[in-house]
Amino acid sequence: MGGPPVTGTIPEPLTTSPRLHDLQTWDADWAGLRVVVTGIGVSGFAAADTLIELGARVVVVDAATSPKAQAQADTLRIVGAADVLLGGNAVETIPKVDGQKPDLIVTSPGWRPDQSLLAAAVRAHIPVWGDVELAWRVRERKGRKTADWLTITGTNGKTTTVGMTESMLQAAGLKAIAVGNVGTPILDALRDPVDYDVLAVELSSFQLHWSHSVSPVASVCLNVAEDHVDWHGSYASYLADKAKVYANTRTACIFNAEQIETERMVEDADVVEGCRAVGFTTLTPAVSMLGVVEGLLVDRAFIPERKDSAAELAAMSDFGAGAPRHTVANALAAAGLVRAYGVPPSAVRLGLQNYLPGDHRIQPVARRNGVLWVNDSKATNPHAAAASLSAFHNVVWIAGGLSKGVNYDELVREHTDRLKAVVLIGADSSGLRAALQRHAPDVPVIGSATGDTGTVQTAGTADADAAPSPVSGGAVMAQAVAAAAQLAVSGDTVLLAPAAASMDQFSSYAHRGDAFIEAVRGLEEGQAQTSEE
């Protein structure tokens, strides 16, 4: 990852130069291009590997020095990297490539714009791309099919929607794959021997920030809520980057008709002439929308007779029992994308029936002594946590983590009547604790993780100033689960919906969710695990 941020105003990055202008296909003249790739994780490795294959001269930098980073570095050196520089000093200044200033920086999505190397690149007038921009530039290749792109962003629901989109496309007989923010890097899919017809591309706000020329067939912003303010600097900047998903869209911009912000994004977007605005709603749809009528998902946008009729796409029963509203919304968004691409209604329904939800998103883990245990570790912000809290009553809520500068007042205020108790985890849950004190003063709050690795106190309302006993992720979660088990009775739900990121105590939201599942299984076996995983 990158080094510390710089202070002061950073100008907008350059996106092109005379050397880069004609680099619009795989077969363009990439040979000898001097590139610095920042980050050696999944995205950075794929970018560096691709550029080396194209004949560019590549230097990779990362602050990490872990064995995994060292192994990645060794691999890149073997395949032809000009250099790989690891450690904190490697990311402070712009390295030279073959003794000269680089022509281009390709950054991994997690690197903030104010990171010192990136800020220096902008001030030095060196263009900066993300891995998504690079992927768009190399998507066309002689002798290969050029896959179309359907792009998906949103504060919550991206991974579910991209998975549904992939399933619907495949049900229509198309060669399709979900790529991007979670899962297969786009660059790996482009280099896959399979000639894909279409890519369902999940894009984070970080990836969109560094993307400049992507032109999808159809695009959607599912929803927006305050998130990643620490990275973007302000909520307005976060919204501006999310809105970039609609730029240059060719056929249809799909928006959430129940959230005016996404409609405004479409209104302000610079799109290809003839592109349509199509809404989706979990209510009755107007013309040029998808929605729900009498338990059916319907299309009033992509049929000739849309003024006075609708095409049936699926039924609520296709989701199984008790599908939450946000799942229906995600399905409608996915349906809008694939209908814009020409997928028939029958494939929409079959795709939904075939779709298998991923782990860590409102995932029932166990029912023990009448208590339902639910893993929603992927609820990394208040908006996502609100969706899962709304699905249950009598909740013992396990929450907290890396807050990313968000406000918790609305989340707590709107769900107080559903809360039986709260067990706090996280290196700094002070913001959530304060919101609970303001809006849910009668709800017991158990424990608080106040250090880098944190702890949970399992008896009484925690003293916010109490010194923690340092323990790491697996033990933190085991203690939280043990505390929740003492509070919950038959008919209650213990819900892990942290409303915060995981990286203070866990390597990822998946690691956090897996720790929860393991701790719950420990209870089922009659033991509370409190040792290091």
TrEMBL record:
The record's function comment reads:
Cell wall formation. Catalyzes the addition of glutamate to the nucleotide precursor UDP-N-acetylmuramoyl-L-alanine (UMA).
Pathway annotation from the record: Cell wall biogenesis; peptidoglycan biosynthesis
Matching entries from PROSITE patterns are given as: FOLYLPOLYGLU_SYNT_1
Q: Name one GO cellular component term.
A: cytoplasm
- State which gene encodes it: murD
Q: Which InterPro entries match?
A: Folylpolyglutamate_synth_CS (IPR018109), Mur-like_cat_sf (IPR036565), Mur_ligase_C (IPR004101), Mur_ligase_C_dom_sf (IPR036615), Mur_ligase_cen (IPR013221), MurD (IPR005762)
Keywords of this entry = ATP-binding, Cell cycle, Cell division, Cell shape, Cell wall biogenesis/degradation, Cytoplasm, Ligase, Nucleotide-binding, Peptidoglycan synthesis
Residues noted as binding ATP in the record, renumbered to the chain:
G154, T155, N156, G157, K158, T159, T160
Domain named Mur ligase C-terminal is located at 360-499
Please classify the protein's predominant subcellular localization into one broad category.
Answer: cytoplasm
Q: What's a BP term from Gene Ontology annotated to this protein?
A: regulation of cell shape
Query: Which classification does the entry list for the species?
Result: Bacteria, Bacillati, Actinomycetota, Actinomycetes, Micrococcales
GO MF terms, alphabetically ordered: ATP binding; tetrahydrofolylpolyglutamate synthase activity; UDP-N-acetylmuramoylalanine-D-glutamate ligase activity
Under catalytic activity, the entry for this protein gives: UDP-N-acetyl-alpha-D-muramoyl-L-alanine + D-glutamate + ATP = UDP-N-acetyl-alpha-D-muramoyl-L-alanyl-D-glutamate + ADP + phosphate + H(+)
Pfam families of this UniProt entry?
A: Mur_ligase_C, Mur_ligase_M, MurD-like_N
Q: Which family does it belong to?
A: Belongs to the MurCDEF family.
The record lists the organism as Arthrobacter oryzae
The Mur ligase central domain covers 152-337
Q: What is this protein called?
A: UDP-N-acetylmuramoylalanine--D-glutamate ligase
The listed locations are:
Cytoplasm
Q: What class of enzyme is it?
A: ligase
Q: What is its EC number?
A: 6.3.2.9
